[in-house]
């Protein structure tokens, strides 16, 4: 017997126990039926018939695939016992037949429910396994990328962090965490920016946000980090959780600072060189002017034409030197916040723009290169120089799904379709041809895009698309 059980294995033993349970309950029901019949048919036949439900339920539950067949097989046993040992009559046969039909239906329903619950359980197990695998894959990817994850639950104020986050901030696996775990490590200099971003996320102004800021580790050591944040909401739209991803960018910032330092030294050298060259050019222009004043060169002569060409070439050199002065400053300093309406209104009252009526409906600040406002100066200058009879300029703001759009529009002659892309190329157009090229270079530093979408004859229209993380409302 022991050898047979060993051959069956664990699953076989369980099946044997189930079969034994069904058999014992069935034999018990048959025995009770025989006892009732021995005392007379009128002695509560339903009492023993109800006992047959026990083996039927067990069989339908443990072997649901054969549920209806098992119910029919078990349900015929009372017939066999009753009419094999006794002759109860036709009325009792009808009673048993009705009972058998209900018995089979109940057995089929139990088997159906068991089968479906088993399928549901298998699907849930598969989904659970898939979720676990996806979570493991995500954890591996985050760990490999050096990213730490934290969560803040607004309902109970609890915080959750993963192992990488602990490692980046300097906590051991069992170290206690401070309350509001991320905000507690934000450097005071950046607390306001962090709180503004969190407020925008909770208020629905942003779906997700990105920010570079300075933190301090548990030890007090400072680090630079880039964070990505979003919020989860319940069915009523209430914010329930803040989820953030942390990336250590200290080494990148150190490298950037080294590059900035090197650029500053190069800029100083360029500035000195440019200053010396301009001094020499000024001297050359002075001597050329003296030649003209002293009458050594007469008008309408080849010498006079040559002198004019030399002067024109010197003027071009001066303009190019001015361009190098402006271009060398692009990206030399960290981005800063620009109050758009305030700065444009101050710019609009300058003498060179007195002919324009500048209207501003743009209540935002933009985080961009310190030279960012040169964009609007150049656009205003282009309107005055190339806009024909342009008299009105409007600067407005619109909110998109992933970006804010600042629109600059005038009522001038506009720009031909064939030139809309070329106007941002270096050297294109009248004058030096550097204005719009420099604008694009300034904007590219902070992922800001510009395009011209106006209609020729109805004015120029420039759309400046700014990432939402670089915008805050006044």
Topology (elements, then pairings):
Layout: H1 2-39, H2 45-49, H3 53-62, H4 67-85, H5 90-144, E1 147-153, E2 159-161, H6 163-169, H7 191-202, E3 208-216, E4 222-233, E5 239-248, H8 250-293, H9 302-328, E6 336-339, H10 340-348, E7 357-361, E8 364-368, H11 374-386, E9 392-399, E10 403-410, H12 435-444, E11 449-452, E12 461-467, E13 471-473
Parallel strand pairs: 7-9
Antiparallel strand pairs: 1-2, 1-5, 3-4, 4-5, 6-8, 8-13, 9-10, 10-12, 11-12
Helix pairs in contact: 1-3, 1-4, 3-4, 3-5, 4-5, 8-9, 11-12
Please give a handful of descriptors for the protein shown:
474 residues; alpha+beta; five-stranded mixed β-sheet; single chain; Beta-Lactamase; 13 strands
Question: What does this protein look like?
Answer:
The chain has 474 residues and is α+β, with helices and mostly antiparallel strands. It has 4 domains: 2-135, no CATH class; 145-248, PAS domain (Beta-Lactamase), CATH 3.30.450; 254-328; 336-473, 2-Layer Sandwich (Heat Shock Protein 90), CATH 3.30.565. It is 53% helix and 18% strand. The protein has 12 helices and 13 strands. The strands form 3 sheets. Strands 2-1-5-4-3 form a 5-stranded antiparallel beta sheet, with helices on both faces. It has a 5-stranded mixed beta sheet with strand order 7-9-10-12-11, covered by helices on one side. A hairpin with a 3-residue loop joins β9 and β10 (403-410). The longest helix is centred in the N-terminal third of the chain and has 55 residues, at 90-144. The radius of gyration is 43 Å and the shape is elongated.
